[in-house]
Amino acid sequence: MRLLGRSIPRVEDPPLITGRGRFVADITMAGELHMRIVRSPVAHARITHIDVEAALELPGVVAIWTGRDTAEIPPIDFRQEGLTDLYPYRQPILAEREVRYVGEPLAAVFARDPYAAEDAADLVFVDFDELDVVVDPRADPAPFDEDSDTEAALVNVSYGDVEAAFAAAHRRVTVEVSVGRHTGVPMETRGALAVREHHGRIVMYGAAKVPHYNRQAIALMLGLGIDDVVLREGHVGGGFGVRGELYPEDVLVCLAALRLNAPVKWIEDRKEHLVATNHSRDQVHVIEAAVDADGFITAVRDEFWLDQGAYVRSHAATVPNLTAAMLPGPYVIPAYECRGHIRLTNKTPAGTYRAPGRYEGTFARERLLDAVAAELGEDPIVTRRRNLIAHEDMPFARPIRALGTEMEYDSGDYPSILEKTLAYVDDKGLCAELDERRASEEWVGLGFAFFVEKSGLGPYEGARIDVDDDGGIRVVTGAASMGQGVETAIAQVCGDVLDVSVDGIRVVHGQTDEIDYGLGAFASRVTVMTGTATQMAARALLVKAREAAAHLLEADPADIGMVAGNLEVVGAPERRVSLAEVARSLDPSGAKRTGMVPTLSAEAWFTTEHMTYPYGVHAALVRVDEWTGGVEILRYVVAYDIGKAVNPMLVRGQIVGGAAQGLGGALLEEFVYSDDGQPLATSFMDYLLPTVTEMPPVDVLLLEDAPTPLNPMGVKGAGEGGTTAFGAAVAAAIDDALDAPGAVTRLPVSPERLRKVICNIQRSPREKGER
Amino acid sequence: MKHQVTLNINGSEHEIFVEARKTLADAIREECGLTGTHLGCEHGVCGACTVLMDGQPVRSCLMFAVQCNGVPLRTVEGLADGDDLHPVQKAFWEHHGLQCGFCTPGFLMLATSVLEQEPDIDDEALREVLSSNLCRCTGYQNILIAVKAAAEEMRG
Ligand code: FES
Ligand code: FES
Predict the structure, then answer these.
(1) Does B79 reach chain A within 8 Å, measured CB to CB?
(2) Interface predicted TM-score of the whole assembly (ipTM), two decimals
(3) How far is the CA of A351 from the centre of ligand 2 (A)?
(4) Which sequence spans correspond to the domains of chain B?
(5) Predicted confidence (pLDDT) per residue in A426-438, tens digit
(6) Which of A196, A63, A201, A66 has the alpha carbon at shortest distance from A125?
(7) Is the pTM of this model over 0.95?
(8) Of A50, A211, A359, A484, which sits with the fewest C-beta atoms within 10 Å of its C-beta?
(9) Is A319 helix (H, G, I), strand (E, B) or coil?
(10) Which A residues in the span 699-738 are in contact with B, Cβ-Cβ below 8 Å?
C-alpha cells in the first residue's frame, strides 16, 4: 500500500477526541504528594530570611525545602557540552542567596493535597534586600556576580571581506528593528510526576521533547546511574520549543520522590507558566547593507542584542547562534558579519520557540531588503529577485557553522518559488481584493517575505521494528511527540515499506527504557531523522521476513514479495504466508532450524552530518484602521517547499498552526515588564493569544520541487516554516497599506504603536492617487 | 468543612464530599475520575475546561462543585455512544481538527452545544462562538472546517 504522500487521518486521534488522553495531570498515584513552588515576587534581591514555620503547621503539609536543602544539587546544565564560559549563568533548582527574576523558584512545598500545598506556599514568608534591576538588554553591561557581567557571551559569525564591500558600496542602507518578547505557550502547562519504583528506579512521567538527554541530566544531578532514571512521555499538549526542556521543577519532583519516598506530582498553573517557562525572541537588530550600482547587495553587517533573561538555560547559546547563522537566508550576500550580544536581565530566562532565531533574523533581513528596495525606488520583489541564490548554484555552501554542522543549502529553487508564489497569490484573488478595497479607499496592503528554514538536525536517530506472533507491528523510536502527528507519520513510513495499513502499527516514542538512544523532537527533525531510520529498519525487516518466508514456502527469497501484509511468491499468490506466520517461524526453535537469528525484528540507525534546508515565501494582505491603528489580516499565503510530504494534511496543519503563532508574535503577544522588572503579562487577559477571529484564511502552496539528496525519501522538516516569515510579511504589508516604507520597525505591531506611526505620516496613503 | 454533593455527569451520579472551594473542573477530574476535561488557564479564558450544564457550555474552572448539585452535566466522555462517535468527534478526526488534543474536549463540547441549539448557524456567528476557546496548535482553520462539516451531518 502506497502510504507515503497520502493524507490519511491520524492514528493518534481516537483517545484524544473521546477524553481518554493521558496527559501528565491525568495520572494519579496512591499516596502521591503535590508540590507547589514558592516564587520570587521581586526581580532582583538578596534573600535574607525565609520563614516556613507557619506553612509547615498546615494540615497535610509534609515538607518544605528552600535553597539550603538543595544546595548540593548542581545547577541545570546545557545540552551542548563544553560551554564553560557560560557556566556562571546556569540556574539553580532553588535560589539560595539571590533571586534574579519574578517567578524564580525559591522554595518547594510538599503536601498531601494540591489545595493545601497552595495554601502553605502562601504562608512562606521571605525577606529580601532588593538589588538593582536590569531590564534593558542594551544598557552597559552590569556585574552579574563577582567574576562575570551581564554580557554572557558575544556570538561572532563572519565571512568575506565586509570592510571592502562597504568601502566600495554605491549605497548603504541601515535599519534598526526589534522583535518583542513572546513564546510558545502550549495549552497544556508543564507538569511532572515522579515515583520510585522497584529496584529504586525513579520514573518520571510528563517528559517531552528530549527525554533521553533529560534522563541523563537528572541522573547526573542526583548522583544516580543513567539506568536509575526512566522518563516517560504520555500525551503532551503542545511543545513549540519550550515544553520538555529540563527545568528546576523536573529535578525537584525526582529529588522529592527519592527523599520523601512517595510519588510526587507537580502541575504548573497558567500564571506560573507565563513567568517560569522559557520566554523567547526579544532581539534588537541594527542591520546594514552595502549595495552596488546594480542594486546587488554585496555585504550585510548585523549587530544584535538578545534579552536572555536572568539565566542561561538548557539551550545555552543556540538561539543567538542560529540567528547569526541563518540570517543571510536565501540571498547570495558575498560578505557577512554578525555580532550578537547575549545579555542577562532580570526577566524570565529565554530559550527556543518555534523557528528560533529565524523569526527574528528573517524579520531583520527582510525589513532590510524592503529598505534597500525603498532606497532604490523599486518594487521589493525586484530587489529580492536580483539577490536570490540561483538554482544553478545549489547546493550552496556558506562558510558558516550552524548547530555544529557545516552550512550547505542542500537543494532548492528560490527564484522559482518566488514566481510561483506571485502567481498563486494572484490566482487566489489577493491582488483583486487589494485593488477592490483600495478603490473603496480602505487602507490595505500586500507584503511578501522570503525565508529559509533548517531541519533534520543529526547526528543520529534510530528505530527498531518488532513483529509479534500475531502480526502486530511495533516501531520503537527515540523520537518525542508534542502533538504534531509523529505516530501517524512514522506508521506511514513503516506501513509503506511493509505494505500494511497504519492501524496495525504501534509507534513508541519518548520512553527511555525502550531504546538506548534518542535525541528527541526539536528543530523539525522527527520526520527526517526518525522517519528515515524507520524506513531503513522496515527495509531490513522486509529482507529478514522474505528470507524466513522463503524457508516456509520453499522458494527463493528473491522471488518473494510483500503484498497487503502477506509474503507471497511473485506470480503465484496462492503460495503465501502471513506476517504473523513468518514471525512465529522465527521463535528460538524455529530460527534454530533455519539457522536464522530469532525474532522478526530489525533495527537501523540513520546518521547525518548535515541539516536540510526547506524554504518558502509568505504573503499577507492586511487592512489598517486609520483611527485605531488596528491591523486586520485579511488573507494569508504560505508557499513552502519541503522536498517531500509524508502526509500533506499533517504538513498543512503544521503550517497553518505555525502561521497562527507567527501572527501572535506579529500583532498580539508580548511579555511587557515594568522598569522594576515586574512582569505585566501574567495571565491570558494581558498575554493575548490569537483566537479564531484574528486568524485569516491561510492558503498553503505546498511544493515538492526540491527533494533533499540527504535522505532517501527526500523529506525536509515542515514544522516551523508557517511561523518563520510571518512578522516580516505582515510588516511589509502594513508598510504597503500606509504607503510608508520602513514604517514598521518593531513587533508586535500594537494598535498603540501603529497609531503613533500613522500620526507621524500625517496624510492618508496614496493621497494624490499615485498607484 | 466538606459538603456532600451529587454530580450528575453523562447520566451517572457521583456522590462526592468536597470543600466549598473545590472547582467543578477539579471535582470532575479528581473526584469523579473523568480526566477528559482539561485545565489550560483556570481563570475562564481558554475554554479547555468547557462542559455542558443543562445543555449550556460553562467554564468548569469558574464554577464550584457545590453549585452543581444534581444539575445534569455533560463532558467529552459522554459524547460517543459506545464505539459510535458523535458527528462532531468524527468531523474533528476526519478534518484534522486537532493536533495535541489538549484543547479538543473544550472545543467538542462548545461545538456540540452550539450545533444542538442552532443547527443552521451561519459562518460568522459560528466564528464568534468558537472565538471563546483557545487552541495553540491548529490555527483554527481545521476546527472551523470540522464544525461546519459536523453541522451538515447533524442537519442530515
Ligand atoms: S481552564 Fe477554564 S477557561 Fe481555561
Ligand atoms: S490541538 Fe493543541 S491546543 Fe488545540
Answers:
(1) yes
(2) 0.98
(3) 21
(4) 2-77, 87-155
(5) 999 999 999 999 9
(6) A66
(7) yes
(8) A50
(9) helix
(10) 722
